[in-house]
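Inputs:
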Amino acid sequence: MNAFDLLPCGYLSFRDDGIITSCNRSLAAWLGYSKNDVTGESIEKLFTLATRIFYNTHFFPLIKLHAKAHEIFLSLKHKNGGEIPVLANAERTVTNGMNIIHCVFMQVQQRKKYEQEILDAKRDAEKALSENKHLHDLTESLEQHAIQLEKQYRSQLAVNENLVQFNKLISHDLQEPIRKIQLFVDLMMLDKDSTLSDRSKTLASKVDTAAKKLKSITASLQRYIVVDSERTHTQVDLNAVISNARASASSNRSFDDFDMVVAPMPLIEGYKNQLELMFFHLIDNAIQFRDPERRLVITIECIIVDENIFRISKERYKYTEHVKISFTDNGTGFSAQYKDYVFELFKKIDGTSPGAGIGLSLVKKIVNNHAGDIAVEAAPGKGATFVIQLPLSIQWFPG
Amino acid sequence: MLTNYSVKENVITRNNVTTLGSGSKPMLFAHGFGCDQNMWRFITTAFENHYKIILFDYVGAGKSDLRAYNRERYSDLNGYTQDVLDICEALDLKDVIFVGHSVSSIIGALAALKKPQYFSDLILIGPSPCYINEAGYSGGFERKDIEELLDTMDKNYIGWANFMAPAIMKNTDKPELAQELTESFCSTDPQIARQFATATFFSDNRKDLPKVKTPSLIMQCSDDLIAPYAVGEYMHAHLAGSTLKIMKATGHCPHMSHPEETIALMQAYLEERHGA
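Outputs:
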């Protein structure tokens, strides 16, 4: 027997594919094998499961990238299942054109216990330190948040107060003068003793048209504001919501000659009436801007994806399940430059089309009320796809 | 999606993004747990003439900007997925061939699920949607195996635990210190490595596979402990439009241990999909 076999450390050599090309007797004996048992086997056979993972994710990449790995802690596995902790040094050489990794092992039974104690103590210390720091950071950020909240709360109160006033103005104060303008114009036109010229009569009828438009705008504004009054949320079945919305949109436009392909939709927590209104306006919009050259087809697809719920707070992450709905029509579409514009209040791409231009801004508002996101992709003559993401759970709603 | 690193330069520094190659079609290589972009160096040369090759390190790995590490963000795979999406956005990439090793396979699948418009193909080397055995599913590991792995990792960090204090890491007088640590385990911070291990091995993305529509190549090694054959078959069965190739290569890192076979399989697949 040569000195190599008697060395008080384990030795083996293996190839890149993990096959053992040789080993010394000490190593084989530690593990309950003979040298022949070990040679030709995969090195992974000699490792515990955890060490096998570590070998694949760390040890082997390290040797391959740097041609060596020193002082690596590994656990070898005895033939009968026992565990032998070792420190390994490995180096990779080219011998006779072949890549060989030479590896020596030193048993560290005693040192392992000692290291375990240090490690436990270190972990405890780190935990205490990190908890301490965490608490400190939390206290600091809590205070900052409290100040921020106070500021936001104040400005929110002011905004709400304005909104209440504004709503009152639209629904009462503005209505009365509009009604009077219309009334007086009517009286003027109907006055048998009138000596109005034809030109004045034309002008009077223009005043009447403008008053009607003003009335329609204030009515739309009122609808835009009143949406927020829905305060109770429930588990909403989007399948039912979409089918109701289709019925209302068809009847609104007296048009039912189109196809709707709807994938199975999930239940989500939300404001049922708002969600119905949202789909109503999307479908209504698709009907209004259908391409006369082809049959209107609306496709609604959905998948569930994890998205970060923090949109405004920086460096905060909380991924939760969202439903991502793609609403596609094959209508007349529009140019990509309008993709933000279409969601603005009273903005219309086609100035001559009827309607106040409130539909898509309402859709966007409803999405916001559900802490969601909306975007649109469109091309002229091809149609449009609205992508809406809504969280499945209510706890993220604003307000 | 809002990100603080919406500025291109920031993402490039943050993720240590490197681009090489003289082609135009982008090929984005994503390293796995326990390593960094260096692991790809045995195979990227084969693609340099025909593709634009993009390499990067996840935040916390390799030479990424450690200051950008956020425990909340990287507590599960969604945060790593956002790294990939940020890079695609910053470099204005489209129709990317995504090449992911190990856990990056699933990260790539999640990225393609969230932003399909960025990706044309997914090349998945040793993927697994779930490492832990669950009822009716054999992932290959029990929870205690992973706990032991974390323990092994801790023991291998003990030798230089003292160097880990953040104050020293920021010490610009001794850049070689950080350098050495980086090269040793491709991560300078054991806590980050531990969190990546936890995010990786305790993830379960089985429910996401059927939603992915991007065509994919699954490269399954023979005798891979971390992603066993049955897991490769599971991936193939649940990933629509996937091609499964069983490799002669053994182990979990064929792109390092068997680069020729890895390159050949990738080239054959890409030729079939996009022509020579």
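Remarks. The radius of gyration of chain A is 37 Å. Chain A touches chain B through 45 residues (CB under 8 Å).
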